[in-house]
């Protein structure tokens, strides 16, 4: 008899090797997906933090009067209009007159802090980003 076929042992060994290779591929794929999702979340937080920093910085630069109420609340007077920035209920808000606009959803940006470095220099921190803002119009 001259039949050429695989024995049961050979099939089991090749099946075991195949399952190890496929298992490793799926493990690697799962790790890549988790890493991609974390990078996406970090990027979205950084972009949102940058937009908020730019908005607050623009208003601060043009503010005539500045009052740092606490480390997470700023009151400013901009062209006769009162504007309040602050953190409330894990969201960042901007209140102008009677209108309140939330700049973030809950837990999107973890921190909003401000501190006065001098009479005309304020340090803002939103999320992991920090920026020093020079007040041009304050007295």
From the structure above, extract its key features.
139 residues, alpha+beta, 3-stranded antiparallel β-sheet, 1 helix, rod-shaped
Summarize the structure.
By secondary structure, this protein is of the alpha+beta class. 40% of the residues lie in helices and 34% in strands. The strands form two sheets. The protein has a five-stranded antiparallel β-sheet, with helices on one face. A three-stranded antiparallel β-sheet has the order 6-7-8, with helices on one face.
Written account of the structure:
It is a single chain. The protein is built from 1 helix and 8 strands. The protein has 139 residues and is of the alpha+beta class. It has a domain at 38-134. A hairpin with a 2-residue loop joins β3 (81-88) and β4. The longest helix has 55 residues, at 8-62. The chain is rod-shaped, with a radius of gyration of 28 Å.
